[in-house]
Design a protein that fits this description.
Elements (H helix, E strand, L loop, with lengths): L1 E9 L8 E9 L6 E10 L2 H7 L9 E2 L4 E8 L11 E4 L8 H4 L9 H6 L10 E3 L18 E5 L3 E3 L15 H13 L6 E5 L3 H11 L5 E6 L2 H10 L3 E4 L4 H8 L4 E6 L7 H6 L1 E9 L13 H6 L3 E4 L9 H11 L9 E5 L3 H10 L4 E5 L3
Parallel strand pairs: 10-11, 10-13, 11-12, 13-14, 14-15, 16-17
Antiparallel strand pairs: 1-2, 1-4, 2-7, 3-5, 3-8, 3-17, 5-6, 6-9
Helix pairs in contact: 4-5
GO molecular function: aryl-alcohol dehydrogenase (NAD+) activity; zinc ion binding
Keywords: Metal-binding, Oxidoreductase, Zinc
Family: Belongs to the zinc-containing alcohol dehydrogenase family.
């Protein structure tokens, strides 16, 4: 079938700018374990932008987009969990067979890196080609949903609850579940505890909203942009700090040296060292923010050892896919997780403007609306 997709011919280079244009391309039907989804909307995520800016790997020419939401149009012969007409959003891909998937940790699938960034199925094939037959990397996160239609694996789909706007469901596939899951699945703040969130972008603000649902009584958001800090207050932060040289000292003063949890959710700033230094005894730092593939973290060895501090990596918020995603969407539907306050919608044709606005910080969470 013929569809419209935002094809990235090349990523940003040292002296060149990306090339992303809408094209008419060919998409094959679903295989036995796959589903064809007519995409209504798709978020613009920091991971998409990382690939665009050459910070994360992705082959070109190809199609990005991994926060898709839409309507099931066709299912493969072995698909039983969804049927045509179902409203779905597309989450993280996973193989379902490795020890981590079978053990209930699909976010850490042994083949996850290839499934997310390889651009193709695990057998090397792609369902997406240009009109002339040139193969496109059309399996970004096994969906490539910057398109009017996408092929996805059945197991990565979550049904969108009745009563929730379908066009607000896509971001739960990555950025929003990343921030919320770090709090709800991994840190699980105890009553009366304190948590500091470095970075008030869409991931960090999702963490703020999630922290508000827990017993944490001190929720601190840290950013350089005053408007983001004001939004963090609106979403549940009890305190905000404008990031600077004195941030660690300010956190220690605010929490009397007893900060329980921290989350590093910046988009490439790599403030992990600060997030660890600010912790009190037995504090836990969750790393969720993006960084260059060559980035490293330096912390003070005696500080970590003598105070029993822990540093954990959290990919995609952890948790069970897609059950956790459904839970978050139900919270929003019930008025307890106001994701709509982060979103700004863009026409699909304005994909490059949405990317630029996300890069500049003008928009917290851009969501592309495809013509349907």
């Amino acid at each position: 079938m013929q569809i419209t997709a935002a094809v990235m011919e090349k990523a940003d280079g040292a002296l060149t700018r990306r090339t992303i244009k809408l094209e008419e391309v060919e998409l094959e039907g679903p295989r036995e374990d796959e589903v064809l989804v007519r995409i209504h909307s798709c978020g613009v995520c920091g991971t998409d932008r990382g690939c665009i800016h050459g910070l994360e790997p992705f082959p070109t020419p190809g199609v990005l987009g991994h926060e898709g939401a839409g309507i099931v149009e066709e299912v493969g012969s072995r698909v039983t969990g969804v049927r045509p007409g179902d409203r779905v959003m597309i989450g993280f891909p996973y193989c379902g067979r490795c020890r981590w998937c079978r053990g209930g940790n699909p976010r850490y699938c042994e083949q996850g890196k290839e499934l997310m960034f390889g651009g193709f199925r695990l057998d090397g094939s792609t369902p997406m080609k240009r009109a002339g037959g040139e193969p496109l990397a059309g399996r970004f996160f096994q969906q490539s949903s910057w398109a009017t239609h996408a092929i996805a694996l059945e197991r990565q789909l979550a049904k969108v609850p009745d009563g929730l706007d379908l066009d607000q469901a896509g971001p739960y596939g990555c950025s929003i579940s990343t921030g919320a899951g770090a709090v709800l699945n991994e840190l699980r703040p105890r009553p009366g505890s304190s948590i500091a969130i470095f970075g008030a972008g869409n991931v960090g603000l999702a963490a703020v909203m999630a922290a508000r649902l827990t017993g944490a009584t001190t929720i601190i958001a840290i950013d350089r942009v005053p408007e983001r800090l004001a939004l963090a207050r609106e979403l549940g932060a009890t305190h905000t700090l404008e990031h600077g040289a004195a941030t660690v000292a300010e956190l220690k003063e605010l929490t009397k040296g007893a900060l329980d949890y921290s989350i590093e959710a910046t988009d490439g700033s790599n403030l992990v060292a600060e997030a660890v230094a600010a912790l009190g005894i037995l504090g836990v730092c969750a790393m969720v923010g993006g960084a260059k593939m060559t980035a490293s973290v330096k912390v003070n060895h005696p500080d970590v050892l003598l105070n029993g501090k822990r540093i954990i990596g959290v990919l995609g918020g952890g948790g069970h896919t897609p059950d956790f995603l459904v839970s978050l969407m139900e919270l929003q539907r019930d008025g307890r997780f106001p994701l709509d306050k982060l979103i700004r919608f863009y026409d699909f044709a304005d994909v490059n403007q949405a990317i630029d606005d996300s890069d500049s910080g003008r928009t917290v969470k851009p969501v592309l609306r495809m013509a349907v």
